[in-house]
Amino acid sequence: MGSAFKNKGVQPLLDGVLSYLPCPLEVSNYALDQTKDEEKVVLSGTPDGPLVALAFKLEEGRFGQLTYLRIYEGVIRKGDFIVNVNTGKKIKVPRLVRMHSNEMEDIQEAHVGQIVAVFGVDCASGDTFTDGSVRYTMTSMNVPEPVMSLAIQPVSKDSGGQFSKALNRFQKEDPTFRVGLDPESAQTIISGMGELHLDIYVERIRREYKVDASVGKPRVNFRETITQRAEFDYLHKKQSGGQGQYGRVCGYIEPIPQGSMTKFEFDNMIVGQVIPSNFIPAIEKGFKEAANSGSLIGHPVENLRIALTDGAAHAVDSSELAFKLAAIYAFRQCYAAAKPVILEPVMLVELKVPTEFQGTVAGDINKRKGVIVGNDQDGDDSIITAHVPLNNMFGYSTALRSMTQGKGEFTMEYKEHSPVSHDVQMQLVNTYKASKTAE
């Protein structure tokens, strides 16, 4: 048993990697070809192939950012030009070093299977570098959206510089860790893939940057969507002396079929020039802005297609602002008719518990409105697989330890956003309305 959070068992794990895992040439590695919709490509693992290297770790050194690269194919040399496939940037390798703990050994080149570090390369953890002849990545460029957020701020205002430095570094290290600003409260919001994910970063801010931070209550990142088509026909007209505002938009909104890669589509189906073409981008911008905050609980609306079929403009009073406002009000007007629902993040949870506690743990999963999809035996342990709403998983680590006398363990990863039940939706809507009234 070990804990990355408490730095327990990490060293024995690394010793095991060295002693028991196969050497690079004994393993088949796959890259994802970005020119062929991330089709898997087997890497030959030879120095003769094109360079493919993964940036798997970033470190702040005395000479700037130190980027650790694991070479999967080809050769990298000091002075070479390499391409970051994720960003498209071409970079020169100014210095190539081999790391021995915290000591550096300058080298001229490195081959397949080696781990080296380079200076002066601006990238994020998980970026892939090639020699430019191929567009392979070692990890998917489709980063999942965060499912949980919490407000955070340094206890002391004097720690603001170190606090910002920590957040900037963590964003580069981990694409699933996001930092934003709440426009209403002006609070810093960090978002990630779960409660423990965010707890680890809060602890790292304290341990590595010596910054004590106060955090708010974790907040699940719900979404909204629509379930049926609804039409809109809205005229925005305002006259208050001088040039007025005039813009009319007509069309419909409808749900995008499940499984689609796009979350928002805007389709201009207008024939002719009833709305001048230079106003169309403003209309699209207005609909996007309106979809950022649904009327149910104020969360973003996704799986949404908007079709613009007709409209009207005025020779003098029409403007980009007028049509943008027309789009915003048109969306709000027809949204309720599209039967919106709230989507919640559902997690894939895998538990390993002694068989004697299987019934208790399974009953607790059901109480949390989870669905058990698998139950296997592994010696004296039961392996339970379940889909559980993230909103019901707060404090689960403590609960599982209590139920299993400290012998149970679990892993959790994001699966999908699914509609909540009618009762839960009404509860969330009422809570949201109460909070808005209190403001």
Can you offer a commentary on this structure?
With 439 residues, the protein is α+β, with helices and mostly antiparallel strands. The chain folds into four domains: 10-137, Elongation Factor Tu (Ef-tu), domain 3 (Beta Barrel); 148-221, 2-Layer Sandwich (Alpha-Beta Plaits), CATH 3.30.70; 224-338, Ribosomal Protein S5, domain 2 (2-Layer Sandwich); 343-422, Alpha-Beta Plaits, CATH 3.30.70.240. Helix content is 23%, strand content 36%. The protein contains eight helices and 27 strands. It has helices at residues 10-20, 160-173, 195-209, 280-291, 320-335, 358-367, 396-403, 422-438; strands at residues 30-33, 39-42, 52-61, 64-73, 76-77, 81-84, 90-92, 96-100, 103-106, 109-110, 115-119, 128-130, 136-137, 148-154, 178-181, 188-192, 213-215, 219-220, 223-226, 230-238, 245-255, 264-268, 304-312, 340-354, 371-378, 381-389, 409-419. The strands form six sheets. Strands 7-6-12-3-4-11-8-9 form an eight-stranded antiparallel sheet. Strand 8 and strand 9 (103-106) form a beta hairpin. The protein is globular and about 75 Å long. Residues 219-339 form the Translation elongation factor EFG/EF2 domain. One of its GO terms (biological process) is mitochondrial translational elongation. Keywords: Elongation factor, GTP-binding, Nucleotide-binding, Protein biosynthesis.
